[in-house]
Each structure stands twice: as structure tokens, then as C-alpha cells.
Amino acid sequence: MASESSFDVVSRVDQQELDNALNQARREIENRFDFKNSKTTIDWDDKKITVVSDDELKMRNVIDVIQGKAVKRGIDIKAFDIGESEPAAGGTVRRVLALRSGIPKDKSKALMEKIKSLKLKVSAQYQDEQIRVTGKNRDDLQAVIAALKAMEFELPLQFTNYR
């Protein structure tokens, strides 16, 4: 008798890798010639990254550096929700990069429909901002993973707890 196999579809950012990427970005900015005597800072709490810089051009460069370092550390740039620039103290500009974590209920519907449209013998349930996909045939589960990876989705997806 074949037992049920399952995996979870999640959307989360590896906090340690993000911390490493931000530290690398800070170091690069400290050492870059075009950032000498600049008031650029990168602050991070669990939900958002706040970037303060002298002007819009430096702000774009800082965000490019952060995204580049994140990609090198395996963080999908879809995980960043980049806000609008706003004026900050001392003639600087501030921009908040919100971190997308978890699959919201409204976004999960597109994924669930995609899984159903494959017409495989699997079931998908939404729970705790993630989707659990179960099925008897591991090949069906692999096909679901492949289909979801091929799909252009606005959140970064990871596949965990495969058993």
C-alpha cells in the first residue's frame, strides 16, 4: 500500500541570508568612491528594510546593490516590495523595502487553481499562509512542483517538507 506523500508551498525569506546580504551591501557602500561622505544607511527589522540616502540616484544604486547581494545569496528579488521614496531629515530621501513573507489567502487562489488545472491525483489545502499538497504518487507531486516553478508568480515560492 502506498502511503501519502506531501510537500508545502511557502513564501519566506531566509533571515540569516538576508542579514548576510545586507551586511555585504553595507560594506560595499562604505568602500565605494561614489558614496564617500554620504549619509547612506541600511536598517532592517524582521518585516522591512529602511534605506536612507542623499538623493534619488544614490538611492537607486543602494537598492541595486541590495538586490544584487540578495540574489547572490539565493534570495529572490520578488521578496522585496519596494515602496516610494519620501523626503527624510537633513535633505535625504528614505525608501522602505517591505519583505513579503507567507502566501496571502487572495494570492493562494491562483496557485490552487493551477494545481487543480494539472488534473493530477493530488489535493491542495491552504493553511497558515502556506499550501500543503498531498498525493499518493510522488511523480504527481514532482509534476506539481515543476508546474509551479514554471509559473510566473509575483511571490517567491519555496517547496519544503517533502516527504
Task: Describe the model.
The longest helix has 17 residues, at 15-31. A hairpin with a 5-residue loop joins strand 5 (86-87) and strand 6 (93-99). Helix content is 37%, strand content 26%. The chain has 2 domains: 5-12 and 103-160, Alpha-Beta Plaits (2-Layer Sandwich), CATH 3.30.70; 15-99, 2-Layer Sandwich (Alpha-Beta Plaits), CATH 3.30.70. It is elongated, with a radius of gyration of 20 Å. Helix 1 (15-31) crosses helix 2. Strands 2, 3, 4, 5 and 6 form a 5-stranded antiparallel beta sheet that branches. It is an alpha+beta fold and 163 residues long. It is built from 4 helices and 9 strands.
List keywords for this structure.
5-stranded antiparallel β-sheet; 26% strand; 4 helices; 37% helix; Alpha-Beta Plaits; alpha+beta; 4-stranded antiparallel β-sheet; 9 strands; 2 domains; 163 residues
Binned strand content: 25-35%
Poorly predicted parts: none
* Number of distinct helices: 4
User: Any idea what the radius of gyration is?
Assistant: 20 Å
CATH architecture of the largest domain: 2-Layer Sandwich
CATH topology of the largest domain: Alpha-Beta Plaits
Q: Can you summarize the main beta sheet?
A: 5 strands, antiparallel
Distance linking N and C termini: 16 Å
User: What number of domains?
Assistant: 2
Shape: elongated
Q: What is the residue-averaged pLDDT?
A: 91
Order of helices and strands: EHEEHEEEHEEHE
Structural class: alpha+beta
Strand tally is: 9
